[in-house]
Design brief:
The protein has about 375 residues and is of the alpha/beta class. The chain folds into 2 domains: about 110 residues; about 250 residues, 2-enoyl-CoA Hydratase, Chain A, domain 1, CATH 3.90.226.10. The protein is built from 15 helices and 8 strands. Strands 1, 2, 3, 4, 5, 6, 7 and 8 form an 8-stranded mixed β-sheet that branches. α1 packs antiparallel against α2. The chain is elongated and about 75 Å long. The protein starts with a helix and ends in a 7-residue tail after the last helix.
């Protein structure tokens, strides 16, 4: 049973936390007026302005940025906990409620600023977030009457690749996507989203079926890459990927691709030859993982942060290189925080793309798709 002394102690604690939060807010306002970045923790020691080599300079700069980002994330998390606890313990007066509401808005602004300025490695971690929406989530939120297609009619059904007919805004279409699974059992069953040759052959079988009936194709990509195991190689993994890339370039129907999480190497490209290629704001798309790149370039996988920045794998980087068509915004804090909001932001983009592509003749689609991918990377020549 709560006594009056316990209530007084809790109210005293709430007042003290409110005082601390108000002091932090005043400090942030003062620092903003001075033109300095807001911070609630001590800044790391300054890096040597004249390092021994350019490689060390890059490494030191990246380490400093990463450390600052970690400190900011920790400060934001602490503020959120304090505000939540304060709201639970404080007296229900109008003055206190106004103060808490104002501080909560300031914390939200800090979060928005933090997520708008993430470094490449942090976007890699967000793209791999275990609660990120997967293909089955987008199917549930964006499509109707989904009917799954199983098997490649040659070897087996690959659970890592989801294919099926559905309706999008009343129009019949085909949906294809990689599926990582949630929880240990599902992830093992889905092979962690790494498709085997039968998965790519199943996808191509479904795409040819869609082409036969003139149905547009929606593709959702979230895979670290194709399955690299011995059994996959025995059944022709490389051939299946190459065959898909060639055949997708020839399909006479609209193909709309969305990178929702990881877009890894040929495993992603095998289903990503589309008329429109979109990326969610915090997704990545690359020929190799940062860890793999670091292992090859520096013989040290711990340099993955440096590799992530050098690879230019984030959505804004790839949009600047004209390798994708558009960056789709995510809800505040990332798509893993609100599946429905993420789907609502993606829906009009897909609808607009379908409207534009449906107006083109089949041969126009094929010609434009071919030219689109032929034009990629010419600035390196």
């Amino acid at each position: 049973m709560t006594t009056s002394s316990d209530k007084r102690e809790r109210r005293k604690l709430a007042r003290e936390r409110l005082r601390r939060l108000q002091e932090r807010a005043r400090l942030r306002e003062a620092s903003a007026k001075d033109g300095s970045a807001p911070s609630t923790s001590k800044a790391p020691a300054a890096a040597d302005p004249l390092p021994v080599s350019s490689r060390e300079a890059i490494r030191a700069a990246d380490a400093t940025v990463a450390e600052k980002q970690k400190q900011r994330q920790h400060a934001i998390d602490t503020l959120e906990r304090d505000v939540a606890e304060l709201g639970r313990l404080a007296e229900p007066s109008s003055t206190t409620a106004d103060d808490i509401s104002r501080i909560r808005k300031e914390v939200d602004e800090l979060k928005r600023d933090f997520y708008a300025n993430l470094v490449s490695w942090q976007k890699v971690q967000l793209a791999r977030h275990p609660r990120r929406p997967y293909t089955d989530d987008f199917i549930r939120l964006l499509f109707e009457d989904f009917s799954e297609i199983h098997g490649d009619r040659g070897f087996a059904n690959d659970a890592a690749m989801v294919t099926g007919m559905a309706r999008f805004h009343g129009r019949e279409c085909l949906v294809i996507g990689t599926q990582k699974g949630r929880g240990t059992k599902q992830r093992v069953a889905r092979n962690f989203g790494q498709a085997k040759p039968e998965g790519y052959r199943k996808a191509l079988r479904a795409m040819r079926l869609a082409a036969k009936f003139g149905r547009p194709i929606f593709v959702f990509v979230d895979t670290p890459g194709a399955y690299p195991g011995v059994d996959g190689e025995e059944r022709g993994q490389a051939q299946a990927i190459a065959f898909n890339i060639r055949e997708m370039a020839r399909l006479p129907v609209p193909i709309i691709v969305t990178i929702t999480g990881e877009g890894g190497s040929g495993g992603a490209l095998a289903i990503a030859v589309g008329d429109r290629v979109y990326m969610l704001e915090n997704s990545i798309y690359s020929v190799i993982s940062p860890e793999g790149c670091a292992s090859i370039m520096w013989r040290d996988s711990t340099k993955a942060e440096l590799a992530a920045d050098a690879l230019k794998i984030t959505a804004p980087d790839l949009l600047g290189l004209k390798l994708i068509d558009e960056v789709v915004p995510e809800p505040e804090g990332g798509a893993h925080n609100d599946y429905e909001a993420a789907a609502k932001l993606l829906d009009p983009v897909l609808e607009r793309a379908l409207g534009e592509l449906a107006a083109l003749a089949p041969q126009q689609l094929i010609d434009r798709r071919y030219e689109k991918f032929r034009a990629m990377g010419q600035f390196f020549a």
